[in-house]
Amino acid sequence: MSGMLYLVPTPIGNLGDISQRCAQTLAQADFIAAEDTRVTLKLLNHLGIKKSLVSYYEHNKAVQGEKILGRILEGQTCALVSDAGSPAISDPGEDLVRLCAQAGVPVCAIPGPCAAVTALSISAQATGRFCFEGFLSTAGKSRREHLDSLREEKRTMIFYEAPHKLEATLQDMISYFGADRPISLCRELTKLHEEVIRTTLGGALERCSQIPPKGEYVLVVAGLPDAPAAMPEAADVTAHLSSLMEQGLSRKDAIRQTAKDLKLPKNAVYEIATKEASE
Ligand code: SAM
């Protein structure tokens, strides 16, 4: 009988954010796979849990992943935690989930803290449609390709970034999205110095030069706004109105219908119709 992999989200700053179900899963698992065992040990001590820990991080994930899978296939349950937030979101957990899924091992994700979603919800940007872009590469070519692919992106974009790279990232974003693009810099979420700076890319860059960035950041960048609809020529509006009135519509109904057909504000059509009548 195979065991199970549990994805256990952990607080992104405030230890009070650990849920009862997460604590219970950590206490009941046969072992915990942690990105940094020292970080996880602090959390376990806080919760009064003693448990066998194995490390699973970017540079040992290939070897450790197989070992962890082997133990699960023997029937053990593993709780996977990252340093903070939801495992598998911009951390090596992604690979372990794939490995387990391919081996037919059941994977259970427990909902909980995630820096991206916490930032989006507090950003005051549009939340109806969004895309998660993770960290931009530091390698010039893939970084440029990534940003270039987002030039026309209309959805709100969420990025992770380290404080010492923030200034360069803002500079690059300005080249691709323009200095006027709104951004919410969500800093130190759930911590003592939590701060949300709602500004533009240009404003954020200027601020960086005055106050050196410190702490953890999520960048929530507005998508490309819809281009304003081009205003049709007054003559086209008048022609549309006249044709509707010839079909028997009253002037009032023709104005309403023209506004609807040409996607214009009713008062703009009314003004054109009035001007036309007085000439
Ligand atoms: N898997 C985690 C999650 O989704 O919550 C994120 C892991 S990723 C390696 C770490 C990045 O998340 C940081 O560099 C930062 O961009 C963001 N982050 C984590 N905690 C944060 C916090 N308290 N406030 C703002 N950003 C945070």
Description:
This protein is α/β, with parallel strands linked by helices and 279 residues long. 43% of the residues lie in helices and 17% in strands. A hairpin with a 7-residue loop joins strand 8 and strand 9. The model has no long low-confidence stretch (mean pLDDT 94). The structure holds S-adenosylmethionine.
In what range is the share of β-strand residues?
15-25%
Radius of gyration: 27 Å
Count the E strands.
10
Span between termini: 88 Å
Strand order of the largest sheet: 3-2-4-1-5
Class based on secondary structure composition and strand pairing: alpha/beta
Bound molecules: S-adenosylmethionine
The major pleated sheet works out as: 5 strands, parallel
CATH level 1 class label of the largest domain: Alpha Beta
Catalogue the unreliable spans. Answer: none
The name CATH uses for the topology of the largest domain is Cobalt-precorrin-4 Transmethylase, domain 1
What order do the SSEs take from the amino end to the carboxyl end, as H and E?
Answer: EHEHEHEHEHEHEHEEHEHHH
Q: From the 3D coordinates, which CATH architecture of the largest domain would you assign?
A: 3-Layer(aba) Sandwich
What spatial form do the alpha-carbon principal axes imply? Answer: elongated
How many helices? The count is: 11
| Total discrete domains | 3
Can you identify the CATH superfamily of the largest domain?
Tetrapyrrole methylase, N-terminal domain
Give the overall pLDDT as a whole number.
94
Share of residues in helices: 40-55%
